[in-house]
Protein 1
Amino acid sequence: MSTPAENEADNEHQKSKKPADTAFKQQRLPAWQPIITANTALPVFLAIGLIFIPIGIVLVVTSERVLEFDLDYTDTNCMSLNVSNTTCADVLAQANYTGASCTCQKSFTLDKDFEGDVYFYYGLVNYYQNHRRYVRSRDDNQLLGKKDAVSSDCQPFQKSVNGTDITPCGAIANSKFNDSLVLSMNGNISVPLLRTGIAWSTDKAVKFKNPDNPQNWFATNPRPPNWQQDAWHLDTNLTDDNNGYQNEDFIVWMRTAAMPTFRKLYRKLSLTESTTFQNGLPKGTYVLTITYNYPVTSFSGRKQFIISTTSWMGGKNPFLGWAYITVGIICMITFVVFLVLHKTWKTDDPLAYQMRSMQMNQRTAAGYN
Amino acid sequence: MDDDTKRIITINHGPQQTKFVSNRISTSKYSILSFLPKFLFEQFRKYSNIFFLCIAVLQQIPGVSPTGRYTTAVPLSIILCCAAIKEIIEDVKRHFQDGAVNKRRVLIYRSGNWLYTTWQRVKVGDIVKVLDNEFFPADLVLLSSGEPHSICYIQTSNLDGETNLKVRQGLPQTAHMISSVQLRDLLGVIECELPNRNLYDFAGTLKLNNVAFPIPLGSDQILLRGSQLKNTAWIYGLVIYSGHDTKLMMNSSSVPFKRTNVEQVTNSQILFLLVLLLILCLFSTIAGEIWNYRNKAAHWYLGLTRLTDDKTANSIPNHFGYTFLTFFILFNNLIPISLQITIDLVKFIQAYFINWDIDMYDPETDTPASARTSNLNEELGQVKYIFSDKTGTLTKNVMIFKQCTISGIMYGSGNVAEFNSYELLKNLEYHTSSKQIREFLTLLATCHTVVPENKLNTDSFNDVAYQASSPDEYALVTAVKEMGVVFFRRTPDSVVISFRGQEETYEILNVLEFSSERKRMSVIVRSPNNEIKLYCKGADSVIMERLVADEPNVPLTMEHLESFAKDGLRTLCLAYRTLTDQEYKEWLVRHREASTAINNRNELVAEVAERIERNLILLGATGIEDKLQDQVPDSLSMLLKAGIKIWVLTGDKKETAVNIGYSCKLLSDQLLNLTLDEATLDDTQRQLREHCQTFGDSLRKENLASLIIEGKTLKYALSPSCRQDFLDLAISCKTVICCRVSPKQKAEVVELVKQSTNEITLAVGDGANDVGMIQTAHVGVGIMGREGVQAACASDYTIGQFRFLTKLLFVHGVWSYRRLCKVLLYSFYKNICLYVMELWFAFHNGFSGQILFERWTIAIYNVLFTAAPPMALGLLDRCCSAETMMRFPAIYKMSQNRSDFNIKVFWSWCLNAVYHSIILYFMSYAMLRHDVAYSNGQAGDYLLLGNMIYTYVIFVVCLKAGLESDSWTMLTHIAIWGSIASWFVFFIIYSNIWPTIPLAPEMRGMAKYVFSSMYFWFGLILIPITALLADFIYNCLQRTLYKTLMQEVQEKEVANQDPYDLVMARQTSTVSRVAERLALLKSVFVRTRTPKMSGIIPGPYHGFAFSQEEDGVVPQNQLIRTYDTNIQKPPGL
């Protein structure tokens, strides 16, 4: 059965086979064609050089203004107060790391006033907080205050011997840094320290929440095997806000460091509590009283106590400044080299070449058109 | 029953006993049901997909994966979805094309009625009626036709490439069936061989109920699908093979999967990279195990000892194999997961650019160019050899009478499209040569095998249409008709013409047939004034030696012939003589004897003909233009300039092919023309050796030489003993013309070059006879002509005209190649740049396999943050404008040499990536070494560092794409800056979803803390710039010191200057060198030329060519005698 109408429809359909003449389809989109030669790139190098070198200088100066004091108290700087001529590290070793504690005192002198905000850090060296199994070994749901069974990620610190979930579970929590560092000026004026404001605000506000009825919860559930007390007793001042999962020392620890050498914020100097320290930490002699609980000698780790001010950038680190200066200088050198290249290039071959091509142009103009 | 060896078809007897394949054809890949399994099978045949599937499976093993369980599975499924969508779009297109063919209409006779139906409904045993110029819907047995003796003409150029029409004749037993009444009474059985792919042979028998004995059927009765009915009002045919059983479909095997050169290099590099990956994993594993062994107990806080002690809990496995897997998963993305899909998508859209190109749209046939497969785009940029068909590709298969010379006077001009007859007609009236002119025109009107077809009113001469199996004769008869000498009636023994209004009847006494040995055709006629004349037309070489002794016009005619030949016209010489009755009678007796001889009849007849075709009087010569497709000579010369070698493979005769060679400017006197026309293997071998030796040092180099080889010689040349010599000789020539080659030989020639030169070959053709070579060549291009779609269906690209090939290669090819290379290199680069970072980090984390970044942010690195820049590179980048690239084919040589993508380039990009990752990682590491990144004294963690580095990586990788772009369009900007922005947006959102969505707790607050760190911002300025500084300086130096031609041209273009002299300046030196070589070569060849050596075309070329079917079903003589145009033809209903 022939239907001519259909054929006509077909014909009309075929009319539109001609491609559309649009810039995109014809690949004629207007385009910027950067031609990077020694010539055209000159200003770029000059600009980078001129901008980077001053930035670098500013950054280096900024970094230099930051004051920092390091005290490595791993061994000889921390001689046990109870056992004579023995380092606290040895005391712990002799007790076979079964929760023995050791106290030591170390005095040191600050040569300069640490003005403004002063921060106290503990630093660990050769400590692999970035080990894959270690990083994994936590349960963020538990830390949100949920009472569900914890994830197997926490292994081998998931469950206690009797099968109940450890609170908080995991290797990170279990290995929480538990030395306590107390600082006093001239041996008698204790330096007022803030235990809060050291953790990331988002962590404190969102990621770490205590479960309902925390005191009971933490008391009835097993604590990590290395802990001497449960999570509800982390802050002995018993401010509820800084206990349990919400303890800021704990939160800081739970942010695993990137490198095997790292530092973590321990305390902030309270500028308001005492007039002596209202402008920062004045120069003078200080005594650091250390309750040495944390064993690091088995893996040749080091422990440090660090006092530092900050700049608008943060801690002391001149690298970025010097890197800016270096790159700036490289750019300036390149600029000079290219300038020379450009000059010689211009006078050498191409001029003759241009002359030749111009002549050819004239000769071939008629033929070409 | 021997049903297994033959096919039995009943006629007019209801349904067939056996079930045959339906006539519906399908070239599509999938159906709705088969899509999923077939698609998955196809996809997972690709190594990369298997690889990532394995990774995804490995990630399911608990505790092994450092990146979680689904971070490979999700991107992989996204990528597979993209691939699926692409496949669906492509296949739907194929379904539509098939549908168009399947839904063509045809008239069939079923149970006593004629009805229109679609091709797909045609069944074996159906009787169909096909009208003039229609295609046959299936393989048919010719029953009867509207012509006498059930003759019909068919055009098979689509199948075998031969230009002349072929004659088919139905069996006498069925010839009378010219109406449905008679068809109804046709009862019987056809037995024939099973479907096969042999185009030229057929064996079967027809057993009719009313005929006692079976009647043999041969190939003379077969009308094949793919051919076209010509000059015949209608035919009845009985369907014997349908659908995929037809010879045509049997011959068009499924499109072979073509793997591109770039793909091959990529694959081998992927394997290298895989080995590297394994080494890396092994190294990391060993390092990790050593670390573990040394530190497991000491680093008590890790709880590693406790892990292995605790056998009761489903403890995390921890041994060598698992550690290895961990690293394997960690580093697996060194091999870019998105590479395949990026390339597929880029190529897919590049193919659309080809389809969209308005410059490649042929308004005459309403065909835009079309890329049927998208995975060969970049090959178009590297073509070194083009194998072209002649008919329909280079030529239009239309002959036009252009010029003639009569008695030494030339008429017509080569510059004008049509012959102007004014002067000729004037001279016919008044000039001294008017008698010759008259004879000339009479000869053209009488000496031929054309049959006139008078439409309704027989007296209006202008309405006469002609049927001719020879397009040359058609052109000549039509030309004289235009001059008022109209051939309008043929009876079995006479020809009636109207000579400028005066009716004259010439009695045809004898026809001396044309054959390629004789190279001439004569008729002996009795003119109206009762003279007996012999009219002869043929090649100049045979006519000239048969002329009367002192013919005065010979030198002038020869001169004119040369000028015709130079213009590429096909020439024929015309001569006549008057015979006395006595002479004729004597000859006739001999002729009768010869033509009734039992042995050697043909030779005897030829010998007798020889006796009378002498003492001829030269009338003149004709020049017929075999119309070329538009701009073919220009296109060919551009292709040659681009360093592409052109081979013409044609089924036509040598003369015709050579002729086209000249008219296309492929052959010229500026070239050394070699011919190979040997009859035996030994001769061929000897000749090849000789030529090769003469070439000496320049063998296998580019010479200004051309080679013409005959089909039968080619057969020997392709034999194992000659192969190498032939190849050496052929690739020493700029142009090679192979004549009288079968479709299979075409494919063999292509295969030979493809196998032994390691260069990219391209085959272009329009007919089914080109299918073989189109499928064999690296790239097959089909000309979508007015007729036939077979070649187009088998090809990778179809274009409407040969001239579009230049744009396809010079613009789309070069662009696609350069773009694709950049995409490939860039894809490897970006992945290595990011993932090698994990290795550096491993040095800092005790080779534990910890990742520096959040798992999902790196999982979607390839599918989101860095997906757009490669697309921009792959689609928008362009070095020079299309116009410039078209003007300077020399630019093409750059991509032809594959300088953009090879092992060296690949590994330098990989090293570049490693260098970037070192800069990125260690600078960031040093920057945050003291952890305290905030003025409020707070410290970061590993992810803070990770996210900063990740941001820098995104910057570097995206800007690197910009640095590699030759042109920045608006979309490039969007792709680059958009990608960077997408990371920031993602980062901000992703850092705020925990715990609302239980995902990525470690990311919570990251964005806020990263952005509030001054270190981050200062690092953001410094680190990416530092990383890219070296690249930038390298680019500057390269541009300044080692500029490529392309870059120079680009600079000129940007500066709005004409790059003409620049390109020329670079070329002149080579051209002059080549010219020198030619002179040298010619001298060598001339010196060594012996009388025996037939290798070089002797003397000036005169351009004889004439096409006529020889040894057909119906001899020319009989063909002439069968027609009586006084009788009305049957209407066939």
Note: Chain A touches chain B through 109 residues (CB under 8 Å).
Protein 2
Amino acid sequence: MAVTQTTEPDSVLAKALKEGLIAGALALGLFCLVVGFRTEQNIRNELILTHRWGLLTIFVLGAAILRFVITYTAPLRAERKKIKRAVAVAKEPSAFRRSFPKIGLGLLLLYPLLVILILSAYQGSMMGGLQASLKYVDNFGIQILIYVMLAWGLNIVVGLAGLLDLGYVAFYAVGAYSYALLSTHFGFSFWLLLPMAGIFAATWGVILGFPVLRLRGDYLAIVTLAFGEIIRLILINWTAVTKGTFGISGIAKATLFGIPFTPGPTGFAALLGLPNSGVYYKIFLYYLILGLALLTAWVTIRLRRMPIGRAWEALREDEIACRSLGINTTTTKLTAFATGAMFGGFAGSFFAARQGFVSPESFVFLESAIILAMVVLGGMGSLVGIAIAAAVMIGGTELLRELEFLKLIFGPDFTPELYRMLLFGLAMIVVMVWKPRGFAGSREPSAFLHERKMISGEFTKEGHG
Amino acid sequence: MSENKALLRIENVETYYGNIRALSGVTVHANPGEIVTLIGANGAGKSTLMMTIFGMPRARTGRIIFDGKDITQMPTHEIARLRIAQSPEGRRIFPRMTVQENLQMGASLDNLQHFDEDSRMVFDLFPRLKERINQRGGTLSGGEQQMLAIGRALMARPRLLLLDEPSLGLAPLIIKHIFEAIKALNKNTGLTVFLVEQNAFGALKLADRGYVMVNGIVTMSGSSADLLADPEVRAAYLEGGRH
Ligand SMILES: Nc1ncnc2c1ncn2[C@@H]1O[C@H](COP(=O)(O)OP(=O)(O)OP(=O)(O)O)[C@@H](O)[C@H]1O
Ligand SMILES: [Mg+2]
């Protein structure tokens, strides 16, 4: 007895040490060239090789220690899991989970006010709070909500209809440039251009959709990818209209039904007798994009209950069965494409109004990939899951900018934003390992007769029994 | 038996997969209110004929006429809207949708107008489906999926029901149940049924008439009783089988 008791922890420790060393060696091999060395151009335009041994050491140590801790605590965690499994037999979705959408919505509605209140209290003055809240409302609030809206729009195409679209950002670009061009050339107002941008994008969705929708799966993905690139290249090269990489600047801002957010006497602040500040416009934009995102969600929820939404979901599962049930698969796909594109167009016109500047750089493939990642990570088709994925991914990148203290560890020229892709990759691996169907990976049936009974996606076989 | 009043008439149809001919010169018909069966060995072309009626794949030559209308070149979804329903090979139910939603998909042509009434009829036929109404299609057992595929086809209020091997992989008791259900539907509502089967004995017992297909060619046809008594049919499809 005594022998086993002493050897057991020892062997675990030995194993953990070994695995830690292996992980360290692997990390050394992987990062040696990528992180350890770096090429720089000196004043004479020569490439010189510099090295970053310190950073490399941190990476290697990090990997080794992490692996060591994971292996060392594995038996402990397994024990705990066993106990937990014995206790929790069957768990209904908790009250928190069920009411999460409502709580989240309430928080979103109150978010700017909460931020201002908290920061005012912190800074000791209302004005200081307003000024400081700018960053949180803009960088976190608006930025995240734009992506939530884009991901919800793409969700109609990918999550519901099951059409893999790798060029979604093209519709975002169409919306943004429609707004930018029509507003600078003709002076149309935001409220006229918002629906127009949506219609333009939807039209492009149909134009693209018509020839490609007979393609399936991978082929469709490649063609949509090419479409996204074509739109971007047109924006770069059609300089007479789009000004190329230079971009279009000085785009008119959105107004509150005609009331501009300018410092002048007819401006919003002056009319309400408030002190001048850029914050009101940001708060207005926040609620605007929140409204647009909620519109997307509402339309998605409504459509899912209607025959067309049903047809989208059925299409994702079995196209041949759909056709023999009398569903016109071509128009069904086209409507999915056009609806998704329309919301992309709305988001694009909002983007143009918010930035006041558009250039092709904002519409690269990476954007499509990020939006698609949100849909996949969130659990295809689940609005809440997608919103969480968007908040984590975009909020995470914004947070990275805030992590100034990392410079103390990694040295002064460490720029955390550059590790954004590393984080995306990590997030994807983590979610796919623990939740292969995304955060919220069970499709909520949209029709019930008797009591609600959830059967998680994990139990659902793919394919046809 | 006059062929002019036939509900479905397939004339001289040839279907190809690429360059390979799967059906040659197939002529088959079904009169209103009849149960017609098509039997044949694996790879004979039975499923191909059934799918050709729906235009997936299309017949390269010949004509398919339903209720006096030439549907040979009609888009598949429009063919379905003429109230031809099928329970296809491999069932093809929607795995992530519940039983209820699958049935609703079947009734979508009518915008669910008769959903309650028709689903009650399906549940009377297959009480098992009612017990599992909120279960996802993909998690049903094979037999339950078959019931769902047939039920979904019935929800479309078909005038012609095409069934591709409804007995595939099912227990004898359930096969019996499904065949009885088909018979009852045919008797009570005058539904015309076109039944593709491997289980030749059961199919011929159930049907009024039958066709035998070999390598994409219809080699024999006649009343079920005649086919059942035919020595060639007995040798090829019945002896050694379930007799
Ligand atoms: N999509 C396809 N592409 C190429 N050949 C096909 C295709 N589908 C079927 N075939 C071929 O056509 C022939 C007829 O196939 P079919 O599925 O109609 O047979 P079947 O009579 O239904 O057989 P079973 O009883 O096994 O279901 C077979 O030789 C098959 O290999
Ligand atoms: Mg077959």
Note: Chain A has 17 helices and four strands.
